[in-house]
Amino acid sequence: MGRWHGRRSRKDMINLGFGRLGKAALCAFVFAFLTSEESGSCGGGGGGGGGGTPFQPPPIWNGSGGWQANADGTLPAGKCFGDLSAGAEFCKVESGNYSDANVSTYQPNSVRLISWNVAHGEKLDDMISKFQTESNLKNASIINVQEIYTESEATGNRNAPRELAKALRMNYYFCREFSYAPGYSGNAVLSKFPLHNPQVVRHIYKRELDSNPPLGTRCAMMVDVSISGRLVRSVSAHLEVKTMAGTRKEQGQEIIAAIPNPDFTKMHLVSGDFNTAGGELEPVVGAFKDAGFTNVEGSGITQTIFHLDYIFVRGFPSGTKGGILSGYGISDHKAEFVDFDASSFYNILG
Predict the structure, then answer these.
(1) 28 CB contacts (<8 Å, ≥6 apart)?
(2) Alpha helix (H) ranges present in 76-191?
(3) Which one of 29, 46, 174, 178 has the largest count of C-beta atoms within 10 Å of its C-beta?
(4) Do 266 and 54 form a contact (C-beta atoms < 8 A)?
(5) Bond preceding residue 182 cis, omega within 30 of 0
């Protein structure tokens, strides 16, 4: 698999008592269950509308107070926060605008988000083809990807998030997790719709189960997606695997705390690879539910024998549903989706 991966294959971890990680990884797995908290029903693909409260779409945003990244990739002051010990280069983002010019007036009744850990983007051409041809992928309007690489050995020195965005005619923002010179691993949000107000959450640096960690920290890419002038906040997250369940809970809480900074939206979507070896019993899942989020992708295996990947929504219409798809031969993780009704976004009263 090569040194650039920055983590061992979970298939190797499963073999022989979690393989080369041995007792430490096994302890982490047990710890996940022992420290889990009750968080009620998992939702199993239910609605995210907040009980019996009628859904109200976000207000039309007039652009006041908004921002974009600077030309050099830096963000405005205060928009990259958390553990900044790795240096200023890890607060830079990559972005590009490749969507159709008339996308701001596009009014779909239903919007689909795909969330997927794409295993570094090593099979980039195949992945692009799947997004263009697979019935469950090709109609995505928003894509949150995790563990995608830029200009590294893993991708043959290709910039996977940029090439994916160009091929799908989408806009994108990418945050840097770890350095694999000359490129980086990280997470991205892509969309056919305009993107605004990027923020990066750099997570607490804890990799107790890694004796030789790469430079950088886990991060979450947070950006507002403008659908007919109304904003939906989308977060592409990748929590730490080589740590204990309590740290993942802290990292989830960092994302939750960062969302209203400021909040132009009323609809929040956090998805990605949460690395929850303990599945839905891990405390990070409870932390999101305690904050009013609903897990809409349902229960099931998303990687080998684990439920590692989630889609959490808050403030979405009742009946919002998601599910688990396939790895499509691209990744050891399965892609997930959520569909939500956007028809109420387009009423003439705004």
Answers:
(1) 209, 243, 244, 245, 277
(2) 124-133, 160-168
(3) 174
(4) no
(5) yes
**Cβ neighbours of residue 349 closer than 8 Å, sequence gap 6 or more:** none
Quick count: other Cβ atoms within 10 Å of Cβ 288?
23
pLDDT at 12: 40
Q: What is the model's pLDDT at position 92?
A: 96
CA angle 105, 49, 189 (to 5 degrees): 50
For residue 262, is the peptide bond before it cis, meaning its omega torsion is within 30 degrees of 0? yes
CA separation, residue 144 to residues 6, 116, 310, 338, 343 (Å)? 20, 6, 11, 11, 22
331 Cβ contact list (under 8 Å, min separation 6): 116, 117, 118, 119
List of the chain residues with pLDDT < 50:
1-51, 348-350
Tell me how far apart the alpha carbons of residues 61 and 311 are, in angstroms, rounded to a whole number. 25
State the DSSP code for 297.
S
Q: Residue 2: what pLDDT?
A: 35
pLDDT at 205: 74
Of 142, 159, 143, nearest in space to 151 by CA: 159
Which pTM value belongs to this model? Answer: 0.85
Do 234 and 199 contact (CB within 8 A), yes or no? no
Residue 317: C-alpha distances to residues 224, 231, 345 (Å)? 18, 14, 11
Give the type of residue at 198: P
Pairwise CA distance, residues 189 & 116, whole Å: 11
Give the model's pLDDT for residue 152: 79
β-strand partners of 231: 226
- For residue 312, what is the enclosing H or E element? strand 309-314
Question: What is residue 184's three-state secondary structure?
Answer: strand
| 236/263 Cα distance (integer angstroms) | 17
Alpha-carbon distances of 52 from 47, 48, 64, 176, 258, rounded to whole Å? 11, 11, 32, 40, 27
Alpha-carbon gap, residue 95 to 118, rounded angstroms: 18
